[in-house]
């Protein structure tokens, strides 16, 4: 899976969608931007969850001798 940074960068690379004259192409490019941003948000949430201190992680950390 690409990093959230990469996904946001991909969406930024599609910024030219505003200048596309064909309505169908423009719509699809805008949808792609939205999809990349949604994936970036999901990846960021996943990254946050994997680094949060859960009760089991806290027990392991505090029981280290």
Structure characteristics:
mainly alpha; 72% helix; 65 residues; single chain
Give an overview of the whole structure.
By secondary structure, the chain is an all-alpha fold. It has one domain. The protein contains three helices and no strands. Helix 1 packs antiparallel against helix 2. The longest helix has 29 residues. It is elongated.
Number of DSSP helical runs: 3
**Beginning-to-end CA distance, first to last residue:** 36 Å
CA-atom Rg in angstroms:
19 Å
Strand element count: 0
Order of SSEs = HHH
Categorize the overall geometry: elongated
**Which percent bin holds the helix content?**
over 70%
The count of domains is 1
- Average per-residue pLDDT, rounded, comes to 80
The biggest sheet, with number of strands, parallel, antiparallel or mixed sense and barrel status, is: none
How much of the sequence lies in strands comes to under 5%
